[in-house]
Specification:
Largest sheet: 4 strands, mixed
Distance between the termini: 52 Å
Structural class: alpha+beta
Number of helices: 10
Strand order of the largest sheet: 2-1-3-4
Strand content: 5-15%
Radius of gyration: 18 Å
Helix content: 55-70%
């Protein structure tokens, strides 16, 4: 750690891609922390106290100072602890990292969640939007990782694409994200989730798949 006597806690849920982002950043920096598992159907007083505005995970607590929103937390970690950098130091590259990370949240995470809809027209519209958005990312990827030869801010933001998207599309019977349609992005996803550091931070696949499958089947059973 950068400073002695640090107290670092992370409130989260193991199946959350947003919590996973923070775990990867902490692992990259070699920071020890206490993980506090939250039951999101029965949120703890601790979570509500630390994040009274959004009442969501992750919440990162550094010496009793809470911070919420995963990408804000990742940037805070990068600026607070030295060592392996996550964000570029060059201003333009740093700005682009912020841009593409926001693009992932605005155009991809939200649209993939919307795949779980019983409205077929709406679902088709979401799939079309996803294809366009993923093509932009395919074109943007120039190296092994978005951060170059090492994992960076955009890679961490895109963990949802690498690990969660294949699960969701398998459950929903989609064939959107593949090596044929997005060769560079798909190769990146395999490199990323198989990176030893990242693998330690990912949740177990089978329980997560079962969760999405049950949710999907419940949604369409009520149609």
């Amino acid at each position: 750690m950068a400073v002695g006597e640090e107290e670092v806690k992370l409130l989260g849920a193991k199946g959350s891609p947003f919590v996973c982002r923070v775990k990867i950043a902490l692992k990259l920096k070699g920071i020890e922390y206490k993980f506090l598992e939250e039951n999101l159907s029965n949120k703890s007083d601790l979570l509500l106290n630390y994040n009274p505005i959004y009442k969501k995970v992750p919440v990162f607590v550094h010496n009793e100072r809470p911070i919420s929103e995963s990408l804000v937390i990742v940037e805070y970690i990068d600026e607070t602890w030295k060592g392996r950098p996550i964000l570029p130091s060059e201003p333009y590259q740093r700005a682009m990292a912020h841009f593409w990370s926001k693009f992932i949240d605005d155009k991809l995470v939200a649209a993939w969640k919307a795949v779980f809809t019983v409205d077929e027209k709406e679902r088709e519209k979401n799939v079309e939007e996803l294809f366009v958005a993923m093509q932009f990312l395919e074109n943007e990827l120039k190296d092994k990782f978005f951060g170059g030869e090492e994992i960076g801010f955009v890679d961490i933001a895109a963990v949802f694409i690498a690990f969660w998207v294949p699960l969701i599309q398998q459950v929903a019977g989609l064939h959107l994200f593949s090596s044929e349609k997005f060769p560079k992005l798909y190769k990146w996803s395999q490199e990323f989730i198989n990176h030893p550091l990242v693998k330690e931070c990912l949740p177990p696949r089978d329980p997560l798949f079962a969760f999405f499958k049950a949710r999907y089947e419940s949604l369409f059973a009520s149609k």
